[in-house]
Every structure is written in structure tokens, then in C-alpha cells.
Sequence to fold (430 residues):
Amino acid sequence: MQQKVAPPSVDPLLELGVLLVRVTFRPFRVSDVDDFILWAGDEQVTRTIRWKTITSKEEALTFIKEVCIPHHFCRSICIDDRSIGFVLVIRWSGADRHKADIGYGVAAKHWGQGIATKAVKMVISEVFKDFPDLVRLQAFAVVENIASQRVLEKAGFTREGLLRKYTFLKGQLKDLVIYSLLSTDSNGAVDDMV
Amino acid sequence: MSSHMSVACGSSISSLKSSTKAAMIFGCPACKSTFLLTTQPHACLTTSIDFSKGLHMEADGKQGQEGSPELSLRPLDLSDIDDFMVWATDDKVSRFCTWDTYTSKEAGIDYIKNIVIPHPWFKAICLDNKAIGSIFVSANNGNDRCRGELGYALASKYWGKGIVTRAVKMVASSIFNEWPHLERLEALVDVENGGSQRVLEKVGFQREGVLRKFVILKGRCRDLVIYSLLSTDPQP
Fold:
């Protein structure tokens, strides 16, 4: 009788944990351009955000130089220092200075690995430190983007409601779910491994 | 959707079906009042034109009783300044509004000249053509042009009589026709402003949620309830 030998296996949670330790974020660099195009040129990634899908290296360079780098809070999400996505925090001005919007995108091949959740959690603690008079961090997810809604929920945001026919996104009228995290909510808690 | 037809001055409506008559909203081109057509005469207050076929009526179809005041919406202008100051100087009225109580007539005149007159949609709520409050719909640009925000204020002596509810119903029945690009009329109301929340609920707005610490009002962070009425929702 042949004995079946089980292939060597790695605990998937351990694997994921190892991956997430390698996730960092930093400002964009011009040298990120080739990695940038891989996800910013992918309609799967850009479908649910305002960023226009990048179609050339020139467009990518322009976008990195004119939008990502000068922006006060635009960060590349990296694995082993290679860009696989972005996180962006846009502060409101004037009477609404106490509010900011957060947005993010991750390369499709890295979906489902907890990367966006980790990136959002890391950004939250930095943002509330950087902007001490920030009271409300908010995020909008299109109603069909369940994965992004889970990211926000795992990162500790509160779902406030569904805003019907709220805005046009790439020419289509969308319902958006609005989330918020307040400076007084439990946030910036010690980050666990996963 | 309620119908919105313009009817030529002097045209006969006696042959129209009563259901059509009830739904017809006529904008008087002279005094700019909005009213429902009936067989009663409309004496325009701005000109001496006798349209003979219309009447200032309450927007909910209740025919004005003998002696009861008529509610209408019309542009607010500088000649309304003294009436405007009645509610603009009242702390009870400004309490949940973004503006601070007015303390000078000059500031009121400035506001009417610089904000009200150029505004895309700003009306006085009038009783017998006297301004007792205001109601507006603000417009947005670009990707947000599908939504407009509703705001209103009423002199406190007229609170509790359903006036704002009627005014909001008038706006809701006409704004989607006037602005065909509008899909969503929204309103943001302080969590403590129960009166205003009830107005919107009675008109049929849908409560979507509470936006926590959404605005800073008079130095304090406030939670606001967000409501919406879509062009595709059942019209009031």
C-alpha cells in the first residue's frame, strides 16, 4: 500500500503575518513609476475611486510628481519598499478644518490579505498625531464595494448611513456609504500583528 | 411626479379635470408667487393684471378659507428688510443655523444684496405676501451637481402651525422640474432640532443617518442628521 506523504505546509496565518510585517508606508518617489502603473493603471483598482486610470508612463510620472509627492498626506503602501498602493488623507479647510477624508487603493493581486486594513490603521495614528485639531476622519465607499466597507469596519470606523444618489463617479450616479472615525473613538490603539 | 405646467394668462381651465387642476402649480410671472390654479380669480399683487383663473392657495390643496392667510413662496428682496430682521435677530431662530443672530440692519441688507439676490434658488416664505421666513436650495458643481441642499428659517411666532412643512412640500414638488439635473434634495439637521426633523419626515424625506461631529456651529462640534428626498421618491 502506498503511503501518501503530505506536502510541506506553512500555516497560512503565519504567512499572512509575515507579509503584513513587510507592509510599510512612505512618501512616493519618482522611481516608483513602474510599480505605480501596475495598480494605478488597473481599472479594477481605480473603478471605485476618483483617480483616473493611468494609461502611460508619462501620465504616471506627471501624477506622481504633481499630485502624490506635493500632497501633504499622500503615502505609498509598500511591500519590501515596492509600491503596491496608496493612502491619501485630504484635510478640509476653513470652517471645516476639523474634518478630513481618507481614501486608499491596493493592487488587485494583494486584495484579501489585510493590507488595506493595516495601511489604514497605520495612517490613522499618524494622522491624528500630525493634525492635533482633527476631530473627524471620514470615508466614503460606493455601496457595492463591500470589501472596502470591511476594511473601514476592521480599522474601527463607524458606519453612519447610506447616502442615496450622492455623487457622480466616472459618469455614474452612485449611492455611497459614509463612515467616520473620531479623535475620541478608540483609535491609534497598539497595532496587533494582523 | 407632480405636474408643473405653465398656463397662459387668461386661459380657461374650467374644462380641466379636477385632478389635473389640483396638481397644477402656476408661477405668476409678475409677482413670482407660486400657487395652485382654481376657478377663483388671482389678483396679482405686483401688477394690476387679473389672471382671472388662479388663486394664491396653500400648497397642500386646502382652499383658503375666508380670512385665512395665504402661504406663498416668492423671491426675497431689499424691500423685505424689516420683515427679514424680525427672524434674523431672533436667537431662537438662529440657534441651529450656520449664521449668527444679526445685530444690524446693514448686515441684513448686505446679506440680501450679496447672498440672497444672486442665489440660484432662494425664496421668502410669505403669509399674505409678507415675508415671515426663508427657504433655499443650494446648488453644487461637477460630480456633485446631482444634489442640492435644502435650508429654511421661520420667524418663531409662526412656529408650530405646519408652515415650514407646507413650504418644504411646495419646494419638493417643484424643484425637480425646475432643475432637471437634480437627483437628490438633502437636508442636514442638528440632532437636537426635533422640530426640523419632524418637518422633513412629514414631507417624506428619508433619514439616512447621523453624521458625528460633522460641523462646528457657534464654536461647538455638532452631530447632524442627514435626510434626503430623491426625484424618484414618491412626491409629497
Notes: The longest helix of chain A spans residues 115-130. Chain A has six helices and seven strands. Helices of chain A lie at 12-21, 33-40, 43-46, 57-68, 115-130, 146-154.
